[in-house]
Amino acid sequence: MTETFDQHLIEALRKAVNAYAPGDQVAPCVLLWPDPERLWQSALPLLQARMPELYQLGAYAPELRSGPAFWLRYVEANVVEHTANQGRPIFYLPGISREQLRNIEDCPAALSALVELQYRGAVWLHQNGKEWTPHGYLVSKYGGLSLEVAKDHITLKALAGALPTLMTQSIAQLQGRRLNAEFFNALLAPDSIGQLLRWLSEPEPFKQSRTAAEWKAFCQQCKTEAGFDPIKDGALTAAKLLAARANHWQKVWLRFIEAPANYKGVVEWLKRAAPVAQDMFASAEVWPNLNELAERDLAQALEGLLDRTPNEAVRKLIELDAQHGARRDYPWHALGLSPLADALRPLAKLARLCQSAPGAPDLETYAAFYTDAGWRVDAAAIETMAACTTPEKSSAILRIVSNVYLPWLESTARHLQQLIYADGQLTRKRGKPIEPVAGRLVLFADGLRMDIAKQLLEQLRTHGLAATLDWEWSAIPSVTATAKPAASPISGAIQGDSASDEFTTRLISNQKKLDHSRFLACLKDHGWQCLSSDSTGDPSGSAWTEAGTLDKRGHHEGWKLAHSVRDEIRDLASRIGALIAAGWQEVIVVTDHGWLLLPGGLPKVELKAFFTETRWSRCAALKADAQTDTQAFKWFWNPLVMMASPPGAGSYKAGVEYSHGGISLQEMVTPVLHVRAGADSPTLARLREVKWNNAICKVVVANVGIEMRVDLRTQPGDATTSLLEHQQTREITAAGKATMYLENDSDIGRAAHIVLLDATACVIHALPTIIGE
Prior knowledge:
Blueprint: H1 5-17, E1 31-35, H2 44-50, E2 54-57, E3 66-67, H3 69-76, E4 90-94, H4 98-102, H5 112-115, H6 117-120, E5 122-123, H7 134-139, E6 148-149, H8 153-167, H9 171-174, E7 178-179, H10 181-188, H11 192-201, H12 203-208, H13 212-226, H14 230-244, H15 248-258, H16 265-273, H17 288-303, H18 310-324, H19 331-334, H20 339-353, H21 363-386, H22 391-422, E8 440-445, H23 450-462, E9 465-473, H24 480-487, E10 494-495, E11 506-507, H25 516-525, E12 529-531, E13 542-547, H26 550-557, H27 565-581, E14 586-590, E15 596-597, E16 612-615, E17 620-622, E18 632-635, E19 638-644, E20 658-659, H28 665-668, E21 669-677, E22 686-693, E23 696-702, E24 709-713, E25 730-731, E26 737-741, E27 751-757, E28 763-770
Parallel strand pairs: 1-4, 1-5, 2-3, 2-4, 6-7, 8-13, 8-14, 12-13
Antiparallel strand pairs: 9-21, 10-11, 14-21, 15-20, 16-17, 17-19, 18-19, 22-23, 23-26, 24-25, 24-27, 27-28
Helix pairs in contact: 8-10, 8-13, 10-13, 11-15, 11-16, 14-15, 14-16, 18-20, 18-22, 20-21, 20-22, 21-22, 23-27
């Protein structure tokens, strides 16, 4: 391993105490190390930890190997028990010069007990007879390190403060460069820009958390690099310089905007420093108060769209996005200070997508359109709702979603209803029931809509799994009681009965009503294992399992389901990955139905209760003798039973935001995922390159996916062991690059792991690293 400064020094001290000619000379009894200016004293704890024979002249503290002259004599005479039995003691003498030892007549009484040892022992001195200083040791070609070190006053002060840290540096890294105040200050504050931002974020706590030497080094660095004195100029001046972004402050600004969440206190200082009268060149990019004004302007503009027609709202939203879109690249967006500008991006995307609602000549073509492109409208609507925190703060956004999105839902649903009605008032399954095959597992995800499945598909591929997506028709009505049995491997063992059964089915074998326990029993009878949510089963057979809570959440949360979508995708991807890892060769993901989701509720449609046996929000079983002009379709399990479906995206109940059971692309065109292990997938995202520069780490990722991030952890699977500033993971750019900054510079040298995270915060790759190397 490369020798460090302290190792070289320890070797020199031990060599000096053992420097004698056997046969001609008596071995020195001790080595005296005089240091009149106490220049080495700050490094003594480090040296004593590695040299059990090293003692210090000072206050009586045996546990610290420190004591007065008489006690040190006892140590030399082996009267005091110590740990240096295998080596001669070395006495460090702070504040004592060689001349004081020599001047016996004027020697202080407190030192007199040691004077005699200079004759029986040895004194560690430069070959010129003077005491060794840290600077002298660094530059000396005779017994020192022969390095190039500046000797100006500022450098010597910086060297004194940085000495303990300098001791641990590799000599090879010190050679071939000029060591000056800037270098020594950087040892105490290696990330000077990050240190400056941390100080500006919390000036007083930052100062209190530093030693005197570290604070001095920081101030000196600020003067040298930024032309700024933290003590004399203060935080307000620093904020103005940061906003001006001139010279060195441009680098500080770039660091700030890379991770503004790490320096939240900077925002308040920028608000205080903002000029009272904004000129024409003032920008919301650097002044958070201007960003607040822009948010208020956007809020007013959005409120003004509530009474506009959908077409007018679409045009205006596109204009507003062009006006406010740039603010999403400002640091305030990352701090959550631009919520409306954030929600405007998917809202404007939704508006563009809703400008046309195409039809198709037949069912297959229309379902293919939705599977290929139409699902993006629903995804944009979900993304917009997910950007809304509470109805109070985002009521305008949510109402605009309804205004823009509902016409598209209505138009596409009505067209699909017309196509199904013309095709015999029913839907037919495209594929046969799934058969049990060794190594095949069917995973049922209740309410897995097409747009959610598209995102799940991407997550699975990101995890290195080979996954493909197809589609299947749901059953009429698209409710779990009817559609789940139809999507299961045992659909051939089931039949329907009457309209009064609330869309449930019966087993053909015994005519008993199909409840959950009978459903599982039937699966087992047909050769399927039935796995609980935490079981992986026997991959040599075939199995059925269930996962996901999308439908349950939708019924309870309404539009707020959008906030849970990412968690649901993450959980499903994790479950599928675990099953593949357990040895299953194929996982087929099926579902029963999709759903409609509209803030404020679907439009109310009237249907008299006396026409129906059973009535839900999006479907109703009609009585056999019902005479009504409402559109009706045939029940999947019994074509003699007719099912009413509200036209378009309507609901038989008022105020329902989440619903299914009707006929729409979202409810009826359901995804089918086929997943296999694919370790050799060329699209597998991986950490490709890692470079350390003290406390800064630059990472390059191959095959980067959407919203991937990186973290630095001591335990790769535990997010709480992150060593980054405020444990904030770092976003990866589209080019596959990211920069990470340590929370504490003292972590340099520790073993850790760099982890790659997907959009759901799952670890998909990890590399071991030594921090700083």
